[in-house]
Every structure is written in C-alpha cells, then in structure tokens.
Amino acid sequence: xxxxxxxxxxxxxxxxxxxxxxxxxxxxxxxxxxxxxxxxxxxxxxxxxxxxxxxxxxxxxxxxxxxxxxxxxxxxxxxxxxxxxxxxxxxxxxxxxxxxxxxxxxxxxxxxxxxxxxxxxxxxxxxxxxxxxxxxxxxxxxxxxxxxxxxxxxxxxxxxxxxxxxxxxxxxxxxxxxxxxxxxxxxxxxxxxxxxxxxxxxxxxxxxxxxxxxxxxxxxxxxxxxxxxxxxxxxxxxxxxxxxxxxxxxxxxxxxxxxxxxxxxxxxxxxxxxxxxxxxxxxxxxxxxxxxxxxxxxxxxxxxxxxxxxxxxxxxxxxxxxxxxxxxxxxxxxxxxxxxxxxxxxxxxxxxxxxxxxxxxxxxxxxxxxxxxxxxxxxxxxxxxxxxxxxxxxxxxxxxxxxxxxxxxxxxxxxxxxxxxxxxxxxxxxxxxxxxxxxxxxxxxxxxxxxxxxxxxxxxxxxxxxxxxxxxxxxxxxxxxxxxxxxxxxxxxxxxxxxxxxxxxxxxxxxxxxxxxxxxxxxxxxxxxxxxxxx
Amino acid sequence: xxxxxxxxxxxxxxxxxxxxxxxxxxxxxxxxxxxxxxxxxxxxxxxxxxxxxxxxxxxxxxxxxxxxxxxxxxxxxxxxxxxxxxxxxxxxxxxxxxxxxxxxxxxxxxxxxxxxxxxxxxxxxxxxxxxxxxxxxxxxxxxxxxxxxxxxxxxxxxxxxxxxxxxxxxxxxxxxxxxxxxxxxxxxxxxxxxxxxxxxxxxxxxxxxxxxxxxxxxxxxxxxxxxxxxxxxxxxxxxxxxxxxxxxxxxxxxxxxxxxxxxxxxxxxxxxxxxxxxxxxxxxxxxxxxxxxxxxxx
Lengths: 535, 298
Ligand SMILES: Nc1ncnc2c1ncn2[C@@H]1O[C@H](COP(=O)(O)OP(=O)(O)O)[C@@H](O)[C@H]1O
Ligand SMILES: [Mg+2]
Prior knowledge:
A: Rossmann fold, six-stranded mixed beta sheet, 31% helix, globular, B: 298 residues, ABC transporter involved in vitamin B12 uptake, BtuC, two-stranded antiparallel ribbon, 11 helices, binds adenosine-5'-diphosphate, binds magnesium ion
C-alpha cells in the first residue's frame, strides 16, 4: 500500500499500544471517472471524536457510507478491533458495532420513535413493543436526553429526530458512531446539545467519526481531525495543535485570504464589498410584503405562512433565516409567482403585484434564483438555450429563433460569469457550480431590481461559493434589493444587512446584522421571541 | 326481510373474491409497489383454478394451482419492478395483458373457444341457514385472513418491515432491512391472495369459466385500497360495500319496478359507487412515502 503523502502517516500520538476500534486501509471508490475515495487510511480510537473535514465533494460521505455498507468500495480493507471484517450492507456494519446517522435522516416519518428504533433489530414475528420502549428509554437516559418513545417522528423537531437516529445506533451497543454532517441542519443550541451528547458517549468509550466542512465545530469538539481533499487524505492530526487557518488551507488546497467566516471564505478581503450600507441614507423600498398568509398542505396541517410582514430596500440584502420547512419555500414561491397567497399583499417598487404570475413578476424586475437548480434549467438543452429560455421573445427574427444572436449572448455571459463550458454543452453535464453560474447569468444579466435567491451555495465547492456570494453582493452595490433565503447561518451573517427569522411560518424577529449573533438567531429559529432574545 | 337477508348473503359471496384481491394488493402497496398486474393475476388465478380442477376433479388442487400461478405472477412483477426497476404502471399493465392473453390462449387450445365443462366446485357450509350459508373460503377470508393481515401489518416484525420499506426504503436499508426481499415477499403474498380471489370465482361461485370472468374486479380492488387508505378494516368494508351494491343491483334487475331501467345501467351501479366514493374520500390521501418508487442503493 502506498501512502499518498507523508502527511498521511500516523501522527506521533498514535501507537500507544491500543488497537484502533476501526481501521480503514486503502479504501478506494470510483464513480465512473471520478475517484471519490482514493486510497484512504484512517484509524479511529476508543473514546475519541474524530472529524473528517473537507469541502463539498471531497469524498467524506462516500467514505462513511462505505464503512457503513451503504456504498461498496472498489478496494480496501476494514479492520474492527484489529480483525478484518467484510461489510457489504448496513446489517454487517451493525453487527460489527458500527452505527451511522446519515445526512438525510433515515427515519420513517409516520412511525413512532420506538418503531423506528426497532427497525434495525426486528425479526419477522411478533413485536415486543414494551421491551423496545424500555430500550429506547434506557438509551435516552444513557445520553441524558428526554424523549417520548411513542411520539411520531414526523412531529419531532430536527434536533429531536437526530437524537432518535443516535438512539437507533445506541440500542445496538455500537462502539463506533458515524455522523454525516450532523450539524448542518441544526440551530446553534441544538449543536451544543449534540456536542454534549457526543462527549457523554466518548466518555463511555465510544468512538465518534463525524464529517463537517465547518472549522469551528472541529475545534469545539474534536480530538483529532482528518482532512480530505479530492478524495485523498491530506493529513490526520491532533486538533489541539492544528491552527484553524492551516486546516482551511489544507482543506481547500490553496492559501485562503481572509480570517472571517472561519477563515474559509475570503470575504472581508481585497475583493470584499465596501462597508455595509450607510443606514442614514434613506433608501427606496423595492419589496414590501404585508400580512402574507399562505395555506399549508394537508400534511402541514396549518398555515405555511401567517401574517408575514417584511420589506427589502434598494441596495440591501435581507437575509431570511430559519430551520428548513418553516415557510421559507412558500415565501419564495409567492414572491416568484409560483404560489398564490390566501391573504396579504406583495408590492414591488410600489406596485401591487399580489398573486401575479412568474412572467408579470419577471417583467416587474424580479429575478429569481431558486433553491432547486436542476428544476430551474432544462438539463438536456445547451447552455446557450438555457440562457435565453425565459426571454425567447428577445431573440427572435420573425417566427424563428435568431441563433446567431443567441450564440453571441451566450458567449458574452460565459465570459462575464466565468462559466466553464461551451455554449453548446448541455447544462446537465455541468458541475453544480457552473450550473449555478448559468442561472446567475440568466437572471442577473437583466439587472433585476429585486433578486429572490434561495440556498444559492448549497452543495457548491468553496471557489464557486465565493463567486456566487460575491455576485450577490455586487447586486446590492448596484442598488438592487436582495432577499436571501439560506440555511447556512455563516452565509447569512456574511452577506445580509438585516435578518428576519421565520419560525412556523411567522416572522419570529428581525435583527440588523450587527446585533445578529448565531445564538440569538438560533433562539428565534427555535421559537423564541425577539423580546427574549434581545433582553 | 327475506330479501334483505338474501342480499347480505349474496353480498358476502360476491365480496369474497374482492376481499382476497384487495388485501393482496394492500400488502403489496404497503411496500411501495402499485401492482397493476392484479387484474391479470386474478384472471389467471380463476383460469388456472378451473383448469386444474377440471383435469383432476378436485377444487382443492385447483386452488393450489391458482396459488402457484399467483406466486409466479408476483415473481414476474418482482423481477420487473424490483430487480429491473421498470416503471410500475408499465410493468403492471403488461403483466395483466400477458396473463389474460395467456389464459385465453390456453383456454382456446384446450376447449377450442367452445363450451367449457362444469367442474366439481366447493360446497357451501351451513346449508339452508340464511347468511351463514357460505363457502369455506368466505369464512377464511373474513374471519381468518382479514384479522391476521391486520395483526401482521400492525404487530409483527414483517409488518413493520413492510411499512418501513413502503414509507422510506432508504431508512429501511440503513436499518439492515432488505428492501428487495421485503418487496418480493409482499408481491408473492399479494399475488397468491389475488389469485385465490380469482379462483373463488371459478371454484366456488361459478363452477366453471367464462370469458371476462373477473369483469374488472382487479381494478376495483386497486380503487378499494386507496379508498381504505391502505388499512385492513376499511378495505374489508369497501369490499362489502361494492359487493352489497352489486347484489342489490342484481335484485333490482329482477324486480318489476326496475324493469324499464336498462340492464347496463344497473350493472354499472357498483362501479359508479366506487368512482363516487373515491371522488369523495380520495382527496388529500397520503400515499405510502415510496409509492411507485424503485429503490436502488448507490
Ligand atoms: N452515487 C454517486 N454517483 C456518482 N457520483 C457520486 C455519487 N455519490 C457521490 N458522488 C460524487 O463523489 C464525490 C464525493 O462525494 P461525497 O462523498 O458526497 O462528498 P462530501 O460528502 O465530502 O461532500 C462528489 O464529486 C460526488 O459528486
Ligand atoms: Mg457529504
């Protein structure tokens, strides 16, 4: 086995005589041409929290899923307590004492907590609900959380659902717990609770491996960290000595410029926007929403949005924070004409556009960059066609499409937005970052007065993320209003001038960014009131 | 009064094939698979039951033949939808066309499209006792199959697996439950039950075989499963409701009051009832989470 880089050698602190609970040797996994995991070595010790740090697409999930039997590695060996084991399905992993909390929770929503916990041990015969309920309670006590064994999972908060996932692993006496991006979906308070839980578990001798692309989490909880880049291990080291900045550079593979935003994204740097908007200058309001109410679906059983009041001024970014599913999607839908409110009004530039469809909103100067990239482009069509799709009228000669004009338009935007693709490539073949750039180009080239954008950097790598965020700030400087919906608090805090928090379809509170701390936002997201928060 | 008693008796008889087919479809759909092959399975079950009974003289062997055919049709659906991930609508309708065509083909080979023989059929229990005078399969269906199915889905490990696979196959897989095996199991059980439902028509009710013998009962079962929202007792009720209206329409057809009403309209009555109940109760239905979705591990 060839160690790819010297840094992949065991650190000095290894070799205390303990066999690692889990050892991975030379794990390799390719998806087509793409090497998602390239000869990965990793050792997990009893009682440690080990972070797997890496950008989006670095191969963290693939490695974990391979260890849990959800993905079959092409090569490599897994040793548990020093003995080679073959893990071809989650069943094998569970038998080997490995438990996993997948990024998208593997819970059956209409079932109860107990039923979900039973799933992994259930035979075919009669269910012993009473015993299972007891197991749930015992496991919950072990990690010091209270949970109703008979609650339906769909009625639980995300943080509680995650606890159910952990309980599921614990009832099997798992000795190794894998967590894939466990903090991505949590409000800050729940992150703290999760970390407390993890500490309890490691005190009991469990080994925890968790993936993250956030450095502050790594320094908060981890004993050791393994950095992955493009499928390879860059280094494994103790967290104590590891400088955040150094880790960031290892993760990204090039020097990072700024220090803000966990030193990952170079915002407040040379290319950073000017200081935040001068509050004294009265600005024109480009979007005003009053009393907006949207009916919920049958399963929501309530109104998806209720009496929402907000506005966006010209030259400002309004961030919309909230745990996903608290009305963000409905808000974006209404503002882009995809859904009709049952009450309330929407004014764009002083014109009432309540209930207007997408075309009218677009004509009124609203640009939208929706959450679901793939649904917003036609993957089988070329880049140039996708770029003109929403405004075909402007590229007509008589009844026909003026191909030359379309091509020229595409070439200009490809250049301007640094899209790494030719005009005739199909959009479906582009990476997430380039697809997002196509969308940005299509929308922003028309200089909309108001930009509605949701989760703009989800799933993008650091470079593309930086690019997209910078483009959004450029809109603000241009004098457009930007309504930014995001689940990434760091992103919201970096880009917004003002933040509103949606909770259960209502505006739980509004804060200027100077007063918005992750803790305050988290409280609002969790249902706190603005009075409690600013008290 | 006597008419009412006769009506209830007749409803139980004609609900029996529906009951088997509907419960068979129900357990299959609970794993996330819509088995549109059910009409064909019922048809083939009816024919196979008849054929075996005709050549052996035993309705019990006929029933066994139907079960084998039902298992095979479940296996076919499994191959198509579970193993190969074929679109379930296409696979199901294809299976139905294949099985009906095959039954007709063998029917012609054997009987040349002419008259088919009358067979020794299942006898009635409790002869001459109103309402209680029923086939054994009716008793088994209502008093054994339905409660057992209810319990299995609710209180057994198999049922928990079935529900998990149908709601969230990713979660089931992550918990070490084989989605493939669970779906195959449900398809096999469902296929066998559906075929028994078909065989009730030939082996018990008719004692013979005619073209178009199932008369869309498979499709009705699919509607009943949705009507019942994938729960056992409402499905039993739905089967009784349809059969009740069917029995009623037969009574009406021979009563003098309705002489002038076109026969076709009366025959359509139970189907209209199904359409109406679906239109009323079918809104806001929550389908199993993985309905129609093939599962493939990355
Ligand atoms: N099932 C799959 N098929 C094809 N490519 C995949 C699949 N799963 C992951 N990949 C690719 O493998 C790479 C690593 O992905 P992943 O392990 O999810 O990264 P991470 O979790 O670090 O963000 C990415 O480029 C991703 O697109
Ligand atoms: Mg991942």
